[in-house]
UniProtKB/TrEMBL annotation:
<dbReference type="GO" id="GO:0003700">
    <property type="term" value="F:DNA-binding transcription factor activity"/>
</dbReference>
<dbReference type="InterPro" id="IPR037171">
    <property type="entry name" value="NagB/RpiA_transferase-like"/>
</dbReference>
<keyword id="KW-0805">Transcription regulation</keyword>
<dbReference type="InterPro" id="IPR014036">
    <property type="entry name" value="DeoR-like_C"/>
</dbReference>
<keyword id="KW-0238">DNA-binding</keyword>
<dbReference type="InterPro" id="IPR018356">
    <property type="entry name" value="Tscrpt_reg_HTH_DeoR_CS"/>
</dbReference>
<dbReference type="InterPro" id="IPR001034">
    <property type="entry name" value="DeoR_HTH"/>
</dbReference>
<keyword id="KW-0804">Transcription</keyword>
<dbReference type="InterPro" id="IPR036388">
    <property type="entry name" value="WH-like_DNA-bd_sf"/>
</dbReference>
<dbReference type="GO" id="GO:0003677">
    <property type="term" value="F:DNA binding"/>
</dbReference>
<dbReference type="Pfam" id="PF00455">
    <property type="entry name" value="DeoRC"/>
</dbReference>
<dbReference type="Pfam" id="PF08220">
    <property type="entry name" value="HTH_DeoR"/>
</dbReference>
<dbReference type="InterPro" id="IPR050313">
    <property type="entry name" value="Carb_Metab_HTH_regulators"/>
</dbReference>
<protein>
    <submittedName>
        <fullName>DeoR family transcriptional regulator</fullName>
    </submittedName>
</protein>
<dbReference type="InterPro" id="IPR036390">
    <property type="entry name" value="WH_DNA-bd_sf"/>
</dbReference>
<feature type="domain" description="HTH deoR-type">
    <location>
        <begin position="4"/>
        <end position="59"/>
    </location>
</feature>
Length: 252
């Protein structure tokens, strides 16, 4: 096997553990120049096995890990994000909540709330978590099941969402860049976009490993109704774009 093939396998192995990776990290890990890594990423991108992003690469849908795997990553960061997001929702009487690992951590933090709340979600894991609190009324959306993600989708899901409006949508994301938030799974992206269009405010809950990544489909643009809740300050270019478009960022 050639050195290049070995590097390609190592890059794919790294992306099986983490949903995204930086050129600098790969360069250090594999002991080759950043330019060599960029050429490797370009070749892998052409095969459809990864997708290049600004400064790195992300998995394509085929390499997107199951929710059970992703929920084991960045636990401390996601728990901090969850607490910040729970504080941010204030006295909202109802929420849309997306699927995803960080949204699941949010649901676990929200589960201890001591007031009535209605939650609409397409994610089985989130519905299960929140149903443990008798004060939370959970509305599980109908639709076809995506087993890897534990999420429903399809025309019936979208039709159901269009019947409701909530003050806030709390939504995870696969990528965060200067333009907004994006999602790697097309079926999920359709559901999440519908949720955001039927809410007054959108809270994007995403850890800092998503910075600089752009996934398959844009789901939210930065504007004055959007707040990014994360664990670290975004890079200057992303932070500037958020401010210029009137959005807000909270980290801790």
């Amino acid at each position: 096997m050639s050195k290049k093939s070995i590097r390609h396998d190592q890059i794919l192995s790294a992306l099986e553990v983490n949903p995204s990776i930086r050129v600098s990290a790969l360069s250090e890990r594999l002991g080759v120049s950043a330019e060599t890594i960029r050429r490797d990423l370009a070749e892998l991108d052409e095969t459809g096995r990864i997708r290049r992003t600004y400064g790195g690469a992300v998995r394509t849908k085929a390499f997107e890990p199951a929710l059970s795997e992703r929920s084991k990553l960045h636990i401390e960061a996601r728990e901090r994000i969850a607490q910040l997001a729970v504080a941010r929702i204030g006295e909202a009487h109802s929420l849309f909540i997306s699927g995803g690992a960080t949204a699941l951590h949010f649901a676990r933090a929200l589960r201890t709330i001591e007031r009535p709340l209605t939650v609409l979600t397409a994610a089985f894991s989130i519905a299960t978590e929140l149903s443990m609190n008798p004060l939370i009324q959970v509305m599980a959306l109908p639709g076809f099941v995506e087993p890897k993600e534990g999420l429903v989708h399809g025309a019936e899901t979208l039709k159901f969402i269009h019947q409701f409006h909530a003050p806030i949508t709390v939504m995870g994301a696969s990528g965060i860049d200067e333009d907004g938030a994006s999602e790697a799974l097309p079926h999920a992206a359709q559901v999440y976009s519908a949720m955001t269009s039927h809410a007054d405010e959108v809270l994007i809950v995403a850890d800092s490993s998503k910075f600089g990544n752009r996934s398959l489909q844009q789901i939210v643009d930065w504007d004055r109704n959007v707040t990014l809740v994360t664990d670290a300050a975004p890079p200057p270019r992303i932070a500037s774009a958020i401010r210029q478009r009137g959005a807000e960022v909270i980290w801790g």
